[in-house]
Amino acid sequence: MTTQLGMQDGDCVCFTAGPEVVAATALGAVRLHAARQLGWIPEGRFNFLWVTEFPLFEKSASGGVSPMHHPFTQPHPEDWELIASDPLRVRSRAYDIVCNGVELSSGAIRNHRPDVMKKAFAIAGYDESTLEQKFGGMLHALSLGAPPHGGIAL
Fold this sequence. Notes:
Layout: H1 20-37, E1 48-52, E2 57-59, E3 65-67, E4 94-99, E5 102-110, H2 114-123, H3 128-143, E6 149-153
Antiparallel strand pairs: 1-4, 2-3, 4-5, 5-6
Helix pairs in contact: 2-3
């Protein structure tokens, strides 16, 4: 197998199994541990990064689709046409500020349009009665008109 992978002395290959999010989290932890052990992360240096355009939806454990963070984040305007046909490709208008791999803060542009919010909830499997029961007051308030809004929570 080392030949097929093009491995050389000192190389390491890691495998994991399980749901994608679990496997990615596990391998991410291995990558960070190895980088620290090998001195690839410089001490005393602060590297900041804005993470933007997270996916709006992800596959749920049941095989359906659920919001990546929550259903109140606005979908990226360029992706609106994908929301019914390919929701896993829809980006959100969410953002994080990260320093040295640690999330310092996150935020989003909130969904202020009831029609868009209803569609996002429907894709996530919420029926109309559940939506009305849990979020009816907010949907009514938004139907009266709300400006685009968002922020970041430190």
